[in-house]
Amino acid sequence: IVNGGASMAKPLLKIQRYFRRKPVRFFSLILLYLTAGSLVFLHSGFVGDSGPGARGGRVSVVAAEMGRRTSSSDIRSLGIMNRRFKDTRRSGRRYGPPWMKKMGQDGQGMDGRGRDYTSSWNRALKGRSAKDMDDGRAKYIGCYVDDTKKRALRGVSFFDYKKMTVFRCQDNCAERGYMFAGLEFGAECYCGHKIQAANVSESDCNMECKGEKSNVCGGANRLSIYRLELSQESARRYGSAIFKGCFHRPDNVTLALPFSAVIQNMSVDKCVDMCTEREKSLAVLAGDRCYCGFPTPLFSLHELEDEDMCLHRCHGEEFESCGNSEYFVVYQTQVQDNRCMDRHFLPTRTKQLVALASFPGAGNTWARHLIELATGFYTGSFYFDGSLYNKGFKGERDHWRSGRTICIKTHESGRKEIEAFDLSILVIRNPFKALMAEFNRKYGGHIGFASQAHWKGKEWPEFVKNYAPWWASHTLDWLNYGRNVHVVHFEHLKRDLFSKLKGMVQFLGLKVSEERLLCVEGQKDGNFKRSGLRKLEYDPYTPEMKANINELIRTVDAALKKRNMSGVPEEYMPR
């Protein structure tokens, strides 16, 4: 034993002598040890409380608003629960109903930090049968001639000589807002808004798709063309330019559109190319003259005319209209209008906290995008989303109480959380749309889509059961406890962006710049819009779901009217 103790002491003596000769290294080692211990302690503090908590004990606000119309058994069946969260600087928690916490405890659907890993992208591009495409997403039109010098579809195109499928081509064209998708040589995909060629025999389209042998993808100089049924209102295009419509000549055209030129054999391409070179966002065709400029109060693009007024065939383009001296055809080029792109933190910290509140899926991220462009100031968030920070929401990293942002995104509800804010903009969206949008976000990311397996599996019914009551209780909580609430309906904002966004800017106490608002209209979508073919083949809501949600809509509608506000938009109900 003595010999063993002596052998153990020798290494210790060597270490002691080493640090006596090098004391700086000893202190460095101690410092590293203490730093590592501190980091471990802090990490455990953040992760230890990672699940969404709900402090119960109070009667549901929805039940109170329903009053006598709802029996106690009906109230229990709604399963409405108050959602409250502790104020944590940067936890990995996500908002959501209590059942998400149980999933985290069971280890299903959550990662080690309590985050939802199911939000990874699930956008697998699968092939579809070519001739039975009238399924609400795309309809087969026929086989058409295609000429390399005069394309039948003149939008964007791409090739894949190994994996081209019908659905892949359709999805790519739909995401870019085109009305038609055509396939050629089994591997080429062309997009367009107009078919500019003759129809031919179906036997001419006889080449199999490279990525799916069961489907036909055109032939030699022949296109298999499909008409796309887009899942959202998508822009009409000519190549890279977006068609804005037909407009009456402005009173002072030289002031409204300062640059112009006469073009021989006028075509849409020539005018768009000229204005793009001049770095103008608008290309305006007026017969043989092309004007370039930006939207201004003198030419706001708010008074749309009937397209028949602009019917005047271009000299250099057989299938397109070039307008005339009184009615102009307007396209938006790819040039970015920079009048509303500068954004900063507030020059002085504000003590007034303004919430931008909404139920998940109600367009909060889009509203933040609009507010930032309209005001020139960053918005903040009650949470932290690294993907949004990387997309330009620089206020995402600030603590929500920093006072450096114009307003703060939140999905919270409950009296304590709501009363922390001095003012609030409450964005409300049709629950049928909001629930589907949040379900897509949960299983497909901010601009992704849930898979068919998720829609048809147990996830969707469980989601509706837990989230639908929250849609109502969230709105009612903000109406009851918010100090100064400005209600904005998502549908109204989409339909009349200029005036509704103007009202939001005024509510924030800022001076309105009409030039800036007109700029926002041209960049309104940002990178936060789901587009493409991801339209479900069926209505995912069962009759029972619809009945429950319709009752919630009526409750919210009554609560709004009780406070002398306009009720929910007509399209909310009946369904």
UniProtKB/TrEMBL annotation:
Membrane-spanning residues: 26-46
InterPro entries (alphabetical): P-loop_NTPase, Sialate-O-sulfotransferase, Sulfotransferase_dom, WSC_carb-bd
Single GO MF annotation: sulfotransferase activity
Domain WSC: 137-229, 240-334
Keywords, sorted A to Z: Membrane, Repeat, Transmembrane, Transmembrane helix
PANTHER family the record matches: SIALATE:O-SULFOTRANSFERASE 2, WSCD FAMILY MEMBER CG9164
Annotated family: Belongs to the WSCD family.
Annotated protein name in UniProt: WSC domain containing 2
Lineage summary: Eukaryota, Metazoa, Chordata, Craniata, Vertebrata
